[in-house]
Amino acid sequence: MDDRTFRNAMGKFATGVNVITTLADGEAHGMTANAFMSVSLNPRLVLISISEKARMLDKINTSGKFAVNILSDAQKEYSMHFAGQMKETHTVEFDWMDGVPVIKNALANIVCNVQSKQIAGDHTLFIGEVKDINFGEGKPLTFYEGKYGEIVEKEIRQEI
Known about the structure:
By secondary structure, this protein is mostly beta strands. It contains 3 helices and 12 strands, in the order H-E-E-E-E-E-H-E-H-E-E-E-E-E-E.
């Protein structure tokens, strides 16, 4: 199979959109990602996957910390900014948790210390031990088949 076939199949899995942030060399850095998952409740662990081509790889390796910022459906611009999809430059004002930059008003900010990492193909998988969490209200920004989406609420009726 070719790369496009694989990517198209993976695009059938709807995901939330996250911005991974870290502090390296005295500067806040961010990268849009959807490769994120919860790993363990005890201890509290999450996993992110970073491409070997991404500048964020060296930043997380240097800092040993990262935050996963789960975006709301009102934060598409943040996703596009950190994915390099916007022509104009934007200044992002970060909040800070445990010395790590986080996206303001995200659905959740999950601050982690790198617990371990594993090279897997052309990516590095970082397992992060969760140190702090902040969360708010709203609907998630989603991604499906290469496009942003939204959650539409439907009334569910059950017959008894």
